[in-house]
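Teaching assistant's notes for section 4

Start the section by putting this record on the projector. Ask students to predict, before seeing the second block, whether histidine kinase will look compact or extended. Collect guesses on the board.
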Amino acid sequence: MIHISQASAVVAGAVLALLLIGAVWALYLGLRARAEAVAIADANARLSALVSGSPAQAMLVRADGRLELPRRLGDWLGFQQLPRELAELSGDGAGLLPEDAEALGVRVAAAQKAGKPFSLSVRACGSERALLVIGERAPQAVNAPGGVVLWFLDATESQAEINRLQREATRLRAAFDALTALIEAAPMPMWYRGGDLRLLMVNSAYVEAVEGKDAEDVVARGLELVEGVGLGGPLANAAIARDTGEPQTAAMPATIGGKRRMLRLHDVPLPTGGVAGFAVDIEELEQARGGLKRFAAAQRAMLDRISAGVAQFGPDRSLIFSNQPFRRMFAVKNEWLADRPEFDRVLDRMREANRLPEVRDYPAWKAERREWFVAPDAVEETWSLGATHLRVVAQPLPEGGLLLLFEDRTQQFELQREHGEMQQVRTATLESLAEAVAVFGKGRLQLWNRKFRQVWDFEDAFLDGHPQVQQLVRAAGPRLAKSARAEVIGDLIRMAAQDRQSRGSSIAFADGRHFDITAVPLPDGNALVTMLDTTDHHRAERALRDRNEALEAADRVKTAFVANMSYELRTPLTSIKGFAEMLHGGFAGPLSASGGEYAEAILVSVERLGLLIDDVLDLTQSEGAPLERAPVDIEIAAQNAAEAVAPLAKAKGIELVVEDAGSAGSITGDARRIRQVIEHLLRHAVAATPEQGRVLLHLDGNQRVARVIVSDNGPGMSHEAAAGAFDRFAQFGNARGGERATGLGLPLARQFVEAHRGRIELISEPGEGTLVTVELPRK
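Reveal the predicted structure now:
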């Protein structure tokens, strides 16, 4: 048995106690460390869960380029196997786009060297995912000296929103630019004011209106479009619009381009607290409004003067205007109209005056008339008031009123009745006419009488079909002597209906009948065709033509006989003249005083007979003979003629006066014949004028004709003698007791004047002398 001392036992107990205490302390420390480890593990699990679910994933890039990244980030980048190097972030259809990977490498190198943080937007290959990379130097706790932590944030939705906002901003910017350009190009002044009502922006039209240098100059100087200050100034509208939040308008005068113009200002409050405004030039509108008022006044004045009754009702259906014919027509007094009665009251008043048609249900009738105010178009009807007939036109007005017109058609109804009677009279008249008559309109036969059908022997069925003109022409052709002449009928109808020209012609039927056909345009655009039977006329004309040919042959024989006789008379007349001159000259011995007088008388008679023979020859030979065509000076021809007649006038003591107005000029014609015309007229005047008388030869003219006037103060001529003065040979048989024959001078003068297409006229009264006027055309 081992014996242990007390001291040893104490020491051993102490040691055991210390060991126990150490074990307990170690247990305590172990339990505490375990609890802390569990807490750390929980925190680490919680942080790992947060990191794995975070929208941002971290990638650690060490100084040597090695990468540490989570699986989730690898999935974002499309890697099946996580890359180990920075250079492996792009390639094989996974990772970043090459250009993004290159840019990221440059930024990472800069961050490693200078510690400069950065942010970069990148995209994954083959994916629409957009990533935002935020890089910064790795903290010391990461235990990666020289490393860089890259935080990848999935910004796909944010980038889409950013892109949408960018597109919206682009659209808004384009709209703003377009609006700005529109405002700038607007022809009206436009402006924008701030909250303090100072101008902040104006367009070019505003600058031009205030005659500013440019928009900046106008804004800087605060040039207002409208003059004035205070409550009535240009800022009053803007202030009201700003304070009330409601758009304001006002009309104000302004001076633009040196002219006074009326502007309508519009001020519109904006959410920004400012006020936008624009001005519309209403000067022309104001003038048009004034003109419209004047037009309305003139229109009412005109309506007050027309014969139709006019009543105008306003939008409230009250009578605002009525003219004098309306008041007379419906027996309405001015005092009653002054109260502007309503439409129903006017109808009632018209009914009381028996100026409305009789109706069974008057209230219903009146209700229908009220609908006139809202009718889509004008309403027209006829009111029969006993023997009076009124045409009523109800015209709704755009502003909501009604215009009523009452036209008295009584006379028109009477005219229509008379027109119907006239139609019957016309039909009866056409049927009773002896001439064939037809009316054509619109290219067809419209009316015809019985004689027309009988002349052409057309069937009733053919005429009742109102054939066209060409059908009628084709049917008429076989009935004519020459079928082609039927086209003349169509031509006449067309000229009358279309060209409005009256034309006529003649047609011969195959059976020997002759008709004169005439087409006359009618006022209604139709053509009237008449056919006159001229068969007897043609027979008489044929007989007269045969007789005329016989007379012309006899006249030619007579003319030839007279011409031959004139030539035959010249031979003995020349001998008589020669022997008479020898006797008078004393070749046969001296003559007694009476013998000399006899010889002189013989010579005068011979001279006169020679002139008559010359006139006869001129009359027979010049008929139908061509004239010379050359310039003829009328003054020279007249002077020569006057000199030839002067000895005859001097022998009778007659004053022969030539009066030249200086405008006779020249004509184109036969100079010898013109001189003979004037000489014959002068000889006739000298022969008809007593001794100591006066004969005047007057010359004048114009641009169209030259005029020769021969007048005398002789005894004049009777009406019968003056009427036959220009007839050849007739005046010798018509000369009476105191009247002398006019000879052949006047007929010759007329023949020569008419050969020059001129005109000759003789005016004479017994005891008043004679005046002969000749007009010769210039051409």
